[in-house]
Design goal:
Layout lengths: L1 H24 L2 E4 L1 H4 L4 H40 L5 H55 L3 E4 L10 E2 L1 H7 L5
Parallel strand pairs: 1-2, 1-3
Length: 172
C-alpha cells in the first residue's frame, strides 16, 4: 500500500509535469519579419543613408572611369596619328593597365565600404526590432518567438506580427 501511494504520487507528478510542458508549448508565436522591418522609421532612414552613400561612391568611380576612358581615347588618337613611338606606346599601355587595375581595386573597396556602412546602420534597427519582440514575448508570455520564414511546417499558431508593429509604434 505504501508503494502504491508512492507510485500514485510519482504518476501524478509526471502527469503534472507533462501537462505544464504541453501548456508551455502552446506559447510559441511567430513574426513576419519582412512585414515589420521595412515599415520601421529607423530602417527607412538607414536605407536612404545607404543609398545616398552608394550613389556618392558610384560618382567617384564614374569619375575615375571617365578619366580612364579619356586617357585611352587620347592614347588611341596619338597611335592612329603616329605621334607615339613604340616605347611611348608600351608606357601608355602600362599606364592604362595600371589605371584599370586601380579602378577595379577602387570598385572592390567601394563595395566593402558600402557593406560596412549598411551593417553599421542596420545594427541598431535590428536591436530595436529584437527589443520589441522581447517586450511582446514577455507581455504575452511567449516562450519562443520565431520568424515565420524559418518554419518548415505550421498549422495556425500565434501571429505576433501586429503586436510587434504596435510595440514599435508602426500603425497598421
Amino acid at each position: 500500500m505504501k508503494n502504491s501511494k508512492i507510485l500514485m504520487a510519482l504518476f501524478t507528478l509526471i502527469l503534472l509535469t507533462a501537462w505544464s510542458q504541453k501548456s508551455e508549448a502552446q506559447s510559441i508565436a511567430y513574426v513576419e519579419t519582412e512585414k515589420v522591418i521595412p515599415e520601421m522609421d529607423s530602417y527607412k532612414k538607414a536605407k536612404s543613408e545607404v543609398e545616398a552613400y552608394g550613389k556618392q561612391l558610384q560618382k567617384g568611380l564614374e569619375a575615375k572611369q571617365k578619366e580612364l576612358q579619356a586617357y585611352y581615347a587620347a592614347v588611341s588618337d596619338s597611335i592612329k596619328n603616329g605621334l607615339m613611338t613604340g616605347k611611348e606606346q608600351k608606357e601608355a599601355e602600362a599606364k592604362l593597365q595600371k589605371m584599370q587595375a586601380e579602378l577595379q581595386e577602387e570598385a572592390q573597396k567601394a563595395d566593402r565600404k558600402l557593406v560596412e556602412k549598411e551593417a553599421k546602420l542596420v545594427e541598431p534597427v535590428y536591436k530595436e526590432f529584437n527589443d520589441a519582440i522581447a517586450k511582446v514575448a514577455k507581455a504575452n508570455k511567449y516562450i519562443y518567438v520565431l520568424d515565420k520564414q524559418m518554419l518548415l511546417y505550421s498549422v495556425g499558431g500565434i501571429d505576433a506580427t501586429e503586436k510587434v508593429k504596435t510595440a514599435l509604434g508602426i500603425s497598421w
